[in-house]
Each structure stands twice: as structure tokens, then as C-alpha cells.
Amino acid sequence: MKTYHDIVGDGGSNVAAQVKAQAEQLEQRLANVKYIVAIMSGKGGVGKSSLTVNLAAALQDAGHRVGIVDADINGASIVQMAGVSRKPEFGSHGVRPAVAQNGVQVMSIDLFLNEGDPVEWLSTVDHSAYAWRGLVEVGVIREMLADTDWDAPDILLIDLPPGTDKLPNLLDILPDLTAAIVVTVPSRASQYVVRKSVLIARKFLGDRPIGLVENMAAFICTACETEHVLFRGGDETDWISELGVFRLGAIPFDPELGELVDSGQSYMPPAVSGTASATTSGAASATASPAASAAATRSASPLPVAVLAIRNIANKMLEMISKSPIPDPASEVLS
User: Fold this and answer.
1) C-alpha angle with apex 51: 166 to 48, nearest 5 degrees?
2) Host domain of residue 88
3) Band of the pLDDT at 324, cuts 50, 70, 90?
4) Residue 169: inside a domain, yes or no?
5) How far apart are alpha carbons 155 and 162 in whole angstroms?
6) Do the domain assignments include residue 22?
């Protein structure tokens, strides 16, 4: 396969040098980032972006410096969910990320658009635009990573759009990606598509860890604390373990948490001793029933019922990525 170095007569643009400079700038920008985790799902509508925002809040609350890159260019929603300003600031070192009230740093194409405006891909020949839209989209993600003046986050979460092709594209930009978290809901249709995403992730990530979060696992009645199943007939085969995927936990459906996300507010107040100790001691119970988690949360504080589950998932994720092998660029499968 030919590379940029094989290009003859590029008109003096020196493409190879430009690509090298971009890679060096990206490496410099992310020099302080210890872990880069992709949040993904082959299926849309499973709450992937909501999980990203809430997971970032839990990690920030635990003492980490967290950044989010909204890589869903055509369906960006992180700005709305995080409640950050749409007026980006520019400095001598690049554009500064928007900062949520909880300290989480956010970079998204949505910061540069008026609220509600879609992304439009302009082309002089619209009927052939499909040939380059994907390339431009990857270029935008690269720029959001490399041209942002990050404030030294140690964890970076990349919120990917639905689709099995998105992770390989991201790995082309970030070959040192630490891990991936795949989000599903307990329905057979969702799990059918998500399993394909796991297979792709396993192929391209090799031995690096892959975690799975089951969102909207059940609805907990706020009056009687009875657990109600929302999705019936999910795949009961243990394909998750067969593919070497970490079960990070299940999140119950919580209307209150949904309201907070829709209004751009964080559910996560400053940690107090009671909830902090519950989080630490409850890390091993991330796979406990949503009803048990809900009851434990309500007895400790008036927080939404999904809070304890998300905190436990954050702890399990940290445990998972801390054991992640350092990728060998020479052995990466990127084709």
C-alpha cells in the first residue's frame, strides 16, 4: 500500500510533512492524558452520550481531571447535556474547551454552531459528496483533539456516533487508545447490533480492555421500589464473557436523571463521606440488581436512583483501564 511519502509531484504542498506535523501536535496536546477511552455502540438511542456525561461527572468527582470529545459530528449533544456555554474562547495556544460547572472539559462541533443548527457539508458537486464526507469528518475529530488547548486532563472520553466503522476511524487518529466501553440496552435488537460492535472492537483493539454497560436495565417504581422490566426477550447467551468483555454494570431507567441531563445539569454534587464510602464499598456490586442499587442510593441521599450505579461503573472502569496493556504501534491492525 502506498503512503504519503510515495506521492510524486504534489505541487510543493509537502503532504507527508503536514501529516507528520499534525501527528506531533496531537501527541503534544495529549501528553498529560493517561487514559483515552472511547464510548461506543453500534446502535443509536441506547443512552451513550448520557452515559458519557454522567461517567465524566463521576470521574471528576472522584478527583480526576476529565475531558470529553463529542465525536458525533452530525448528532452532537454533549454541549446540551453538559450545560456548557456555546461561546468558545480562543487563545494563543488554540481554542479553549468549554468547562462545565463540575469542571469537566468539553470540545464539540456544537460549540461553534448556533443552538439547534445542523452541520452542513458544503461541496461544489453535491451528488459526489459522499466520497469525501467521511474523510472530512475524521479530519474534524483530529482537529478537535489537536487544536484544543486542553487544561491537562488525565482522562479523555471520546463519545463516538453509532456505527461499527467509527472505532477503526478513531484508531487511525489515536492508535494509543486505552480502551472502549460499549453501551447497550437489554433488548435482543440492540444486543444483536452491539455484539457486532464488540467483534469489531476486539479485532482492532487486540488485548486492550473492552467494557460493557447495560443502560435502562429496569424501571424502579419510586413509590414501592418494585423493579419492572422495560425490555423483554434480551439475548440470554453469555456472549459477553465469550468475547472477553468486562461487565461494568447496569443502570436503571431514571426519569429524574433524564430531566437533569436534558436541562444541562449535573446530578453529581460534591462528594460527602456517606456517598463516597458507599461508592468505594459498593464497587464490587456494580452488577447488583438495579432495585438494590436504587434502595441503597435513596437510603444514603436524595440523589437520583442511577447515581450509585454510575459511580460503581466509574470505579470498575478505572480498575479495568489501569490493567490495560500498553499498545505496540507496530502491531496495530488499522487496515
Assistant:
1) 35
2) 30-324
3) low
4) yes
5) 22
6) no
**For residue 335, what is its C-alpha cell?**
487496515
Q: Find out whether 108 and 100 touch, Cβ atoms under 8 Å.
A: no
Tell me the pLDDT tens digit for each residue of 195-209. 888 999 999 999 999
Distance CA 245, CA 312 (A): 17
**The pLDDT of residue 308:** 85
- Helix or strand holding residue 199 (H, E): helix 188-205
Identity (one letter) of the amino acid at 155? I
Residue 299 has pLDDT above 90, yes or no: no
3-state secondary structure of 218: coil
CATH number, residue 169: 3.40.50.300
pLDDT for position 28:
83
Number of folded domains that form the chain: 1
Residue with cell 468483555: 245
Asked whether 173 and 128 are in contact (CB, 8 A), the reply is: no
Kindly state whether residue 19 falls inside one of the protein's structural domains: no
Extract the C-alpha cell encoding 116. Answer: 439547534
Sequence letter at residue 151: D
| Residue 314 lies inside a defined structural domain of this protein | yes
Q: Per residue in 116-126, pLDDT tens? A: 888 877 766 66
pLDDT of residue 294: 44
Q: How far apart are CA 266 and CA 80, in angstroms?
A: 12
